[in-house]
């Protein structure tokens, strides 16, 4: 049976790969961001390097999107211990993190406005849009709440003995320090890749029975009657 036709193998593989690929895209996106690389006064930088902004914002968008199947997979593995807590934390993580994906459109607005208007004027106009109360309360605040949910979900996974206790701390630290170029990007990127990757690799390496929570059926060694088969 192919992976696509096997629901257990397919969902386990997608969840595991998502946790491996998402942090890699995040690190590449941070490195590609011209404003983060420059630091200091970044007014006009997005307008000067629209191609780099497009690559960076697109990769960041997909890094958040690809994290979502991994979050669902983490929730799926929590059983027996901390289930209710895991469901609540997973919901916060899922519905919070997805908002960061929408915020990546703001980079395109900065890039276009800084080219269409004088750089300072275009950046100021983009600032006004991104600090609108709707953007703040519908995207920014829920996004950071989602990061808290991701930390709590990782702890619930560790409590259920399905992941190491340090992984969620590494993921959160990596996400928050990654934009501090270059040393934060190096250290934070390594932390994010290690924290998410160790959980993702465990998913990829586990059996379908372990993933689904089904007990492994022992292989019969005797005859149907319960007696050893006659080999003579």
From TrEMBL:
Residues 219-232 have a biased composition (Polar residues). Keywords: Membrane, Transmembrane, Transmembrane helix. It comes from the Bacteria. Residues 210-232 are annotated as: Disordered. The chain crosses the membrane at residues 12-32, 53-78, 84-105, 137-160, 180-201. The keyword Membrane applies. This is DUF4386 family protein.
